Amino acid sequence: MNVCLAPCPVVFDLDGTLIDSAPDIHATVNAVLRLNHVAPLTLDQVRGFIGGGVDLLWKRVIAAAGLAPEAHRDLVASFMTRYHDATALTRLYPNVAEVLGTLADRGHPLGVCTNKPLRPTRALLEHFGLTGLFSAVIGGDSLPQRKPDPAPLRAAFAALGADPAKPLGLYVGDSEFDAECAQNTAVPFLLFTRGYRKSDPSEMYHTARFDDFAELPGLIEDHAEIARA
Predict the structure, then answer these.
(1) What residue numbers does the annotated binding site for Mg(2+) cover?
(2) Which residues does UniProt mark as catalytic (predicted)?
(3) How would you write the chain as a 3-class SS string?
(4) What is the third-level CATH fold of 10-20+90-228?
(5) Class of the CATH domain delimited by 22-83
(6) Annotated catalytic, 20?
(7) Minimum mean pLDDT range among 3-12, 65-74, 81-90, 174-183
(8) What value does the mean pLDDT take over residues 170-196?
């Protein structure tokens, strides 16, 4: 098992992990659909489409709305003009800000690895005053590859000073994309169960799981203790 000694690098997913961004994504999707005289989708529908990046989101929206696949490029372009600064409805999950501060105070290098494009990722981190906590931010358009390919997560760990081939760190996420990415990268995965996953946690790769961020520092220390044994 790949283990680390505290303070080890900790990399986080964004949507469905640190933030509940589904309401803003839903509103932005529906704004584009309205412009195209298409009936809106529900919040639950759009939440189920999140995780694989904007292109996959819109492939799923197009299928659900019965739109022509060849409209994909124009719909994505229209979406992105609104998505870059969509922060009004997004919220941090409870205890996120406090826990990130605790981890930073304990010396853990912190990073973000998300399939969300980099510009809206940075806009949200700035909106919530979190920018200074993260020494590495990898977005869905930072590299040619996206999660679950291990390349983005390896890049995040490398930017935090870890060996990208064998990063001794932890990844925290909520979705099947995150679990598979952690497994492909061979790092322990801490699963936040209140996010956007579609599978039962028992069916997903994970080292430990939690539903309240207040539990996370203890989980990270537990894995540091295991590493020392």
Answers:
(1) 13, 15, 174
(2) 13
(3) CCCCCCCCCEEECCECCCEECHHHHHHHHHHHHHHCCCCCCCHHHHHCCCCCCHHHHHHHHHHHHCCCHHHHHHHHHHHHHHHCCCCCCCEECCCHHHHHHHHHHCCCCEEEECCCCHHHHHHHHHHCCCHHHCCEEECCCCCCCCCCCCHHHHHHHHHCCCCCCCCCCEEEECCHHHHHHHHHHCCCEEEECCCCCCCCHHHCCCCEEECCHHHHHHHHHHHHHHHHC
(4) Rossmann fold (3.40.50)
(5) mainly alpha
(6) no
(7) 3-12
(8) 97
